[in-house]
Amino acid sequence: MITASRLERLNRIYESYDMVAEGTDVYVCDIKYDYSRWSKNSVDIYGLPSEYMYSAGDIWEQHIHPDDKEAYRSSIEEIFHNGKGMHDLQYRAKDQKGKYYMCTCKGIVIFDDNKQPEYFVGMIRNHSINKSVDNITGLRNQNGFLYDIDRYLANHIPIKIVMYGSTNFTRINDLFGYDFGTRFLQHCTRFMLDNNKNLGDLYRLDGARIALISRNASIEQLKNNYDFYKDRLSKSIEFENEQLILNINAGAVSVDSFDVSVDTILSCLTQAYHESKYNYQGEFCYFENGLNSTGIDKLERINRIRNSVVDSCSDFTLYYQPIVNAKTDKIYGAEALIRWVDSDGNIVMPNDFIPVLENDALFPVLGEWILRQAMQECLSVIEKYKDFVLNVNLSYAQLQNADFLNVVKRALDDIGFPTKNLCLEITERSRFLDRDLLRDISFKLRSMGIKVALDGFGTGFSSLEILQILDIDVIKIDRAFIKNIVNDPKQNSLVKLVNKIAEIYGAYTCVEGVENIEMRDIIKNCDVATMQGYLYSKPISFGDFCDKYL
């Protein structure tokens, strides 16, 4: 029988933990007497005998799903036998009506002065509470995922996050039906839980994407665990008499800077995931955090850049690289290129933030600012050069915005910029978009009198196939195809070939990356229309551009 003094101490420990439980149910066990106090909420939900119980561990185990009991016992035995570590496990527990819910249970052992186990203290989070549960997998859902990240940031707890997804799950749904796909997703989730190795908590995001938040695993451990998932799921899986293969991807981010937003973290995580999915055939991709050359954490810098977008795109500026007529070497137009200026006046190049921001809901705001700012600044240029063409890059994040065409129309009307002087470039990353959507947008832009350019022709998305789908005015030949043109006759022939292809589709060519006179002279003989590159000018501020050309 537990003594009065031990009971009083048990209650003090319980009340201390209960004050900071934040939506979880606390339990405290006096190991010496095997006597526990559990939250009243646990008693009500799971039908436990009382808030105070002897042998509560045995009683609670009867509520755990049979398939999860072995993992539960192993976790408990390990922490007591090793005398260190943490009980941190996701499993299913049944309520008093016999319905199972996914729970996350965390617990630690408190030792006495003789280093003997004295108390076992923990918290149980029922994922069905507070609308944070996913009804299909039983995992915490995206609301719970975002809430937990925010909680870790507030408490300055370093974490690592992995986003998992599939390239062919939609195909499985199409072949076997949505209900089959749902059951298969449950099966795969169970496989991940069974092989999670206590690395962290799993969450169901949108579609077939799963996330993991870990407080103790290294990136190497997370990668090794993912490689195990990838290897197993890419082999034939027998499920309901069907043989299935699931191709998966994963991106990860490490968070040890706490003055950043959840949205910033999610954008960096999504960028790493997209790298895995679209560029690295499912290899584990990691957003490289750490200090940059100016001593600022990369995650913090992305956060500052996001804040600049929110703050009316403050601290952004546009640079312009001239485009010249290939026959006369006279100014034909310019390409507007975004830059961000940090608090010390350092120029941050777009490759350091655009790939991340393109996965951010804020990007269309920045894209509209670039378009408007470029048109506003170049109004004075077209007063002198009536046929001057302003090139502005479009992101897939802008193009997939349902209001995109109206955004362009409003900007043109508000600024009074002539449509014939505007050329919008569809970039290589637009491969993520539906081809029918791209065709419709390109047709409507040209109907407005706006030129449409296909940027980076010959790389990835920008291929011959797309020329048959889109209405294009300009084909921009990527610098990769001319960098050795002085010594490589094949590149010379290739430029001539692309120029002929452009003629077939009623377009003209612009060659990027012209760096010296030899390159220029060879390219001139290829009958291209325009050129740009460091031979003429690197990207320069608008003020410098005006000084040079106005």
Write out key terms for the chains shown.
TIM Barrel; six-stranded antiparallel sheet; eight-stranded mixed β-barrel; 19 helices; alpha/beta; Alpha-Beta Plaits; 550 residues; elongated; Beta-Lactamase
Structure description:
This protein has 550 residues and is an alpha/beta fold. It has 3 domains: 126 residues, 2-Layer Sandwich (Beta-Lactamase); 163 residues, Alpha-Beta Plaits; 238 residues, TIM Barrel. The protein has 19 helices and 23 strands. The strands form 4 sheets. Strands 14-15-17-18-19-20-21-22 form an 8-stranded mixed beta barrel, surrounded by 5 helices. Helix 6 crosses helix 7 and helix 12 runs parallel beside helix 14. The protein is elongated and about 100 Å long. The termini are far apart. The mean pLDDT is 90.
